[in-house]
Every structure is written in structure tokens, then in C-alpha cells.
Batch of 2 targets.
Target 1
Amino acid sequence: METVPTTEPIADTGEQTVAGVRQRRSGLHAVLVELEAAIAAPGRSQAWSDRVAAGLERLRVALAEHIVGTEGPDGLFDQVIRRTPRLAHHCAQLTSEHVAIGDATTAAQEAVHNDPGDVREAVLSLLALLARHRQHGADLIYEAYDVDLGGSD
């Protein structure tokens, strides 16, 4: 008996979506760890400021990629809303968090050559925003796909 190819799309089990989310989370987590190490390092020198500035720039790039992967056409939020429409509000909340995180990143970048204590506080506040955002994102994945991303990235 001959197998006839089908033109129907394969149902999204969520496995590919969750795998992509895990990969993006891991990359973003590495950038966050690097940035935290930069602000924790001793020093008040230009080298310290340059290291923090480089970490903030890597974060800005990683955030831009994260936003494309979540808000972009057929991104995570589109996939979640198609699968579980009741989570549209949760996706909108995460989108608004992207704006706040972007603003905090810009503010930290603009202040990076100011007093190191102030810079550390700005970056710590940014890291706290990101930690909450990551938890909200993990909650979304759990609600949409019944998958616990866990806290060990």
C-alpha cells in the first residue's frame, strides 16, 4: 500500500517551541551572569566601567533577539495565543515588561561612567526586572505547554 503525502500541517505539540525557549533562556542567562560578575568585580577604574558597558551592550543585543523571538511574527506569543487564547493578556504583560526592561537597560548604559555605586544599583535593579520577567515567562510556558522550565539554566 502506497503512503500518500498529506498537506495538513503537523499539530504543534509544543516541543519545538519549548526547545527554542530553553535555548534563548540559556543564552540570556549566560549574559546576565556575565553582567552580574562585571558589576561585582572590584574597581573604580575605566576598565571596570568598560567591562560593565560591554556587558550591558551584550545584554541589549540579547534582549533584542529575545524580543524578536517572542513578539515577532509567529514568535512565541503568537504561538501561545493560537494554542491557548486565554493567555493573550499574559503575553501583553510580558510585552510591556520588554519596554520597561529596555528603558532600564538604556538608563544603565547612559549612567555607566558615573559613580560605580550608582551604576551597580542601576544594574542590580535591571537584573531584578529581568529575574521577574524570566519567572513570568516560565509561568507562561507552564500555563501554555504544561512544562516546567525550572530555575537552573
Target 2
Amino acid sequence: MDIDDLVKKAHENAKDKGFHDKRMEVGTMIALIHSELSEALEAHRAGLQLDYFRMIGLSGYLLDLESEEYFKTHLKETFEMELADAVIRIADMCGLLDIDLESCIRAKMKYNASRPRLHGKLY
């Protein structure tokens, strides 16, 4: 799946699930993205990461060999899944606002490649 597909699929799913039945302010959407990143931080602090056995289960889930219950029990609140939630929310927002995220990422990465080490900052 490329970034454009991700944006379309994330936004369509959010619409289908009722997340856009009422108008949502950009600030609210950003706060929800931030909340997913905070959940990722807490998962990382708690050591909830995809280890080898969970990765095997993830592969099985994606191939429909594992159940939704497996996802809820072993994958749902891991660091990696919380990061995925943040990306999905960003993609949904870009779909709503008609932002060409892929082009923006390419442009920003091109610009960043021309910048000095640490972009001239201490960290």
C-alpha cells in the first residue's frame, strides 16, 4: 500500500465508522493524533512491544489465521500499534482536508537532506 492508498483507505474507514458524522476541528484531530503518540510512549515505557512471538501472531492475524481476540489480547496496545494509530489518524485528517501527504513527505525529506547536522540544533 502506498501513502495515497493509505490516506484514502484510512479516511474512507473513518467516514464509514462515523468519525466524520459531525464536523471536527483541526485542533481536535491534532489532539487525537497526540493522544495516540502519548499511548505509544506509555506502551514503550511499559515494555509492550512486538517481540518475535507477537510478530508471528501479527503475520497470522494479517493472513486471517489468528482471531480478532488474538489481536485484542496480544497486539492492540503495543508500542507499534499505537504508532500505527497515529499514522492512521494523520492519514484520515489528510483525506478529510485533501492534503497530498505523499508529495508533502517527499518535499520535506528532500529539504531535510539539504540541512546541516541536527538541522543546526543541539538535539
